[in-house]
Amino acid sequence: MKAEEVKQANHQSNESINLENLSVFERTQQVIKQALGKLGYEDEFYELLKEPLRLLTVRIPVRMDDGSVKIFTGYRAQHNDSVGPTKGGIRFHPNVTEEEVKALSMWMSIKCGITNLPYGGGKGGIQCDPREMSFRELERLSRGYVRAISQIVGPTKDIPAPDVFTNSQIMGWMMDEYSRIREFDSPGFITGKPLVLGGSAGRESSTAKGVTICLREAAEVAGIQIEGARVIIQGFGNAGSFLAKFLHDAGAKIVGISDALGALYDPEGLDIEYLLDRRDSFGTVTNLFPPQLTNKELLVQECDILVPAAIENQITEENAAEIKAKILVEAANGPTTLKATEILTEKGVLIVPDVLASAGGVVVSYFEWVQNNQGYYWSEEEVEEKLEKILTASFHNVYDTSRRLKIDMRLSSYIVGLRRMAEASRWRGWV
Ligand code: NAD
Fold this sequence. Notes:
This protein has helices at about 5-10, 25-40, 45-50, 100-115, 135-150, 170-180, 205-220, 240-250, 270-280, 295-300, 340-345, 355, 360-375, 380-405, 410-425, and strands at about 55-65, 70-80, 85-90, 120-125, 160, 230-235, 255-260, 260-265, 305-310, 325-330, 350. With about 425 residues, it is of the alpha/beta class.
């Protein structure tokens, strides 16, 4: 398929819109609109799916260690529960906004649709800076948030999980608080828990495992051998560092990595084992070396495969034309703007979009919930085998749809991800 054909089929309805100025939320709405249009659904479906069905804003009073009381603002968004309960992480970050939480809940819906999980998307967040809070303050905030949202969440309603700056300890406190409120043990209320509280084997590295599977399948269809392939990974946190390890073990040459402070690049391949050993718990390692490259410079260095695994809006109209990679695998949420997607597609770059590439985490979260519900636990091998099957099938479903309809992989993943939700909404008689 020619890049020009994709451009035309893909963006007929984009012509009058300045794609570069859209917020992440507006960007999501834009692709949802295009995907539903391609599927032939009436406008009512877009009206239903363009916003979450429910958004709860809560104010959480927390007694701080110095005796003062601080009031935090939190959110929980539930995009669509026509297929099943909603599911998605809780983010602790000073920049959390209502709009961001809404967009993230919509992405979760698409991820669950692509991977055929019996869920719709949800997401939560609290405006706070966990790096400036003590362990006990974080516990009180986590428990307060659960008390504030307890009416609308639960193992058969909406199942939270970890996200940016939340971890298994926070999931443990939240599960305990919910169990106390309900007066029975409820491990299925939340996923990403410590193993002894009903967590799943393989959960910690599941996002990177999923990225690795999608990257491997993309390389195969693009005719690139993983062994010896030159890879740049932006971000060396949970997703980026596990990914670097898995790809290094598979024989790829990791030529570039970065963190919030800078980037390292070596065309002969970096010493990944040393870097993994020396990184701190926030995913920082470049500070151990003299300044080399900025993050911006790293993205446009020579490589075969580029993986943004850090933050949003890294590949834009400004730098897309300079990207050298043949495959772009989005481990981070929202790293590429729609205008950059157009530019890269025209250049013939194969994009594996975030909603597909980073779906490994929610798939293993689903496995955790299933194990909690049945009270029977699987080995890491069983978890990995099931993840492998789901993500390989999901990749090819999205890829085949993109070839058949002559559209890029982002639009194709939204088409695959939305179809079941739209159908379920119709069968329920909502539209
Ligand atoms: P993390 O906090 O563990 O690591 C983030 C990494 O990005 C760190 O190395 C940090 O130094 C770096 N970073 C921060 N700001 C940066 C900047 N301005 N420029 C360059 N690098 C910067 O986070 P994570 O869990 O690895 O998540 C990374 C991305 O993957 C996020 O977009 C997240 O939403 C997405 N994601 C993660 C998971 C998961 O299970 N961890 C699941 C789905 C999606």
